[in-house]
Amino acid sequence: MRTRITDLLGIRRPIIQGGMHFVGLAELASAVSNAGGLGILTALTQRSPELLAKEIARCRNMTDRPFGVNLTFLPTFAAPPYAEYIHAIIEGGVKVVETAGRSPAAHLPALKAAGVKVIHKCTSVRHALSAEKIGCDAVSIDGFECGGHPGEDDVPNFVLLPSAAAALDIPFLASGGMADGCSLVAALALGADGIAMGTRFLATQEAPVHENVKLAILGATTLDTRLVMRSLRNTERVLTNPSVERLLEIERERGDALTIADIHEQVAGVYPKVMIDGDMDAGAWSCGMVAGLINDIPTVSALLDRIMAQASHLINDDLRRIATGGDDGETYRGIMS
Ligand SMILES: Cc1cc2nc3c(=O)[nH]c(=O)nc-3n(C[C@H](O)[C@H](O)[C@H](O)COP(=O)(O)O)c2cc1C
Fold first, then answer.
1. How many structural domains are present in the chain?
2. Which of 13, 185, 210, 324 is 20 to 30 A from 29, comparing alpha carbons?
């Protein structure tokens, strides 16, 4: 399959693994790249630029295909040394960066001068247009269903993606709720040039996380995520657990007076406890609604093979049959089974 995204990134399949804190390590990123997509290391999971440089080198040893690095600009007063992380990315020969959170404008000149392609993750068309205007090469559009930070507009992908297609000139990825060949075909039909997935990649053999995390995703229904930190305008979609329900209770009690200090216990330092120790009730961790559609833990390569085979079958066979009037109404039951 060839799209503007496969051309831009030099990959075989229009499927990207979004940056994931404590998940986007060399094991997963290299597996996605080896399977023909684009794997992404998560810079801030590495506590220093030096450690990121080592992780980039480790990933390079595990794949000879392109891979990227996610750089998340956090709403924090004690900002990480972003310029030094960027130096490690450039020195490590990485040619794709996924930025997220705040605008990457201040860092674009350094990245562009080094020939790095920048994909900015956005949750609205207005932010996507700003990213296009400042010179980003592509955007990844995260709909309301996504795991992580869906923004504050609450527009789901069925409306967000065609709005983005109508407004943008640069290529874009559909992100949030993507899981299989049906998602890929739907995303392409809505104008996207490929898909980015987070939660689906968590439940794979190569995801370097505790087995409990994968089992929690398999056990989740589409109703098991919650939106937290809304009143702080830092909304995050997470998988529910007793700690998250307590967090929501505190939010209700504190109302508009809520500060991050009130929920420190439920949101700070949670990722290593969940992803490494498998303590599933440690606090709030990102998870998409799509968890409710995930029923297995395949290898990354089996997952990508299956997505591409399903997409090809849909486009060349099932949808063609429906479009030409040769269908007896059973096709969609077949597609979903
Ligand atoms: C466990 C987890 C951690 C994540 N961490 C980050 C992160 O550190 N930075 C970032 O930009 N996005 C992060 N995301 C968001 C993903 O990159 C991606 O945009 C999102 O998962 C897409 O929605 P989906 O989960 O429905 O596929 C995270 C998502 C998950 C599930």
1. 2
2. 185
Q: CA-to-CA distance for 303 and 79, rounded, in angstroms?
A: 36
The H-or-E segment that residue 122 falls in is strand 117-122
**DSSP conformational letter for 314:** I
Question: Domain of 39?
Answer: 4-208
> What would the two tokens of residue 254 be?
């504190």
On whether both 248 and 187 belong to a single domain, the answer is no
CB-CB neighbours of 153 under 10 Å: 14
For residues 269 and 319, the answer to whether their CB atoms sit within 8 Å is no
74-131 confidence digits (pLDDT tens): 876 678 999 999 999 999 999 999 999 999 999 999 999 999 999 999 999 999 999 9
Pocket test for ligand 1, best of 20, 22, 212, 234 (most atoms within 8 A of CB): 20
- Phi, psi for residue 142 in degrees, rounded to 5: -95, 115
Q: What is the pLDDT of residue 296?
A: 98
Nearest to 5 by CA among 149, 171, 148: 171
Which ranges in the chain belong to alpha helices (H)? 4-9, 26-34, 49-62, 82-91, 108-113, 125-134, 157-167, 181-189, 199-202, 211-219, 242-254, 264-267, 270-271, 300-313, 319-323, 331-336
Both 116 and 58 in one domain: the answer is yes
Among 23, 119, 199, the mutation site with the greatest number of ligand 1 atoms within 8 A of its Cβ is 199
pLDDT the model gives residue 332: 57
- 51 and 200 in a common domain: yes
